[in-house]
Amino acid sequence: YDAAWALYELAMLDREEGNFKQASEHAQExxxxxxxxxxxxxxxxxxxxxxxxxRGRGRYYEALGHFDLALTSFRNLYNEEGIASxxxxxxxxxxxxxxxxxxxxxxxxxxxxxxxxxxxxxxGWVLADRSVAHAGQGKLDIAEQxxxxxxxxxxxxxxxxxxxxxxRAMA
Length: 171
Hints:
Elements: H1 2-16, H2 20-37, H3 40-56, H4 60-77, H5 80-96, H6 100-117, H7 120-136, H8 140-157, H9 160-170
């Protein structure tokens, strides 16, 4: 069990650093562990990671397939944070595909859940993502306001990476 979560953490770190091949290997290995021990929550989170790795590689439809599996599992587990995270990830794929309206629909639902959970960091990430989609639609005033809101949240929470991401999105 601990080994599977350690592999999850390694996969996340590799993904963050752009080492998608290594991230995929760690995630696949962790997914196998979670399946073997019957941990549905662990499986769902690993599908999230695999989807994020696929997205990072530009394999958007493959990513959506992993997010479908994750979302189904999170809904079956009544895991609201997992649902919100998955909806956000759906949005990022649709944003990358230029489907800004669809991305915003997913972001809106994700933000609603994060708001209900009082999960500030999740709110910040969704606001930052929404700003990119709004900028893609040419709604620059809305995009700037959402970036500012995201930056405020990230500063409150001490999330320097998020703050930097939002500042870069505003540029």
